[in-house]
Amino acid sequence: xxxxxxxxxxxxxxxxxxxxxxxxxxxxxxxxxxxxxxxxxxxxxxxxxxxxxxxxxxxxxxxxxxxxxxxxxxxxxxxxxxxxxxxxxxxxxxxxxxxxxxxxxxxxxxxxxxxxxxxxxxxxxxxxxxxxxxxxxxxxxxxxxxxxxxxxxxxxxxxxxxxxxxxxxxxxxxxxxxxxxxxxxxxxxxxxxxxxxxxxxxxxxxxxxxxxxxxxxxxxxxxxxxxxxxxxxxxxxxxxxxxxxxxxxxxxxxxxxxxxxxxxxxx
Length: 267
What we know:
- The chain is an alpha/beta fold.
- It folds into two domains: 2-92, CATH 3.30.1330.30; 102-261, 3-Layer(aba) Sandwich (Alpha/beta knot).
- Helix content is 37%, strand content 19%.
């Protein structure tokens, strides 16, 4: 049991088994809310006693396994498991829509907490598809927990996972969007130099089909990806801070798009 669950913590293990490991009560709840069912639930006796409502919501076909807290702690990446984990089929993850006019593109995001926050904000902002160039594994335990299960509802594609291949593939994908008339928008620091002059984010016409591109926490946006962009925006801020955390910067940008599409007047 421990070895099997540990294997599912890796990308290769998930792909070979065709299963996704969800750690904790909240992710199980999110799966059920979206209408999905796990194939298997692994829980302690105490958890089962406390959550009879969730147990009753499971299909009869779901395999249940009782384990001790020690076994669950050894099997999961969560520092202090809350008593349950479940498995669901990777095929339950949403497919990209046939028509799309709002993408979030993430370049080599390294921190699972940042990635999780970005994905949760993307879901709140009605992003239709997320593209990720290499970086942290979005289906790893830390990122899934930080996103509160956003990827259970948010279509995504991860290019790579090797960095060079990811940049090559993402470069081509962004250029295809440009050829289709999509505005591909780089997010840059206020004093950025280069062929694109960044404008304050509220001056962009967010009502147009848009792909918003955010760069790596330390290195920023890869030059090849920046060269693909047709527009650039910045988030003006005080000079005592060199740059904003990528997850924090994404919030006003993504929600500005939602505001514009709700009929707000462009400032």
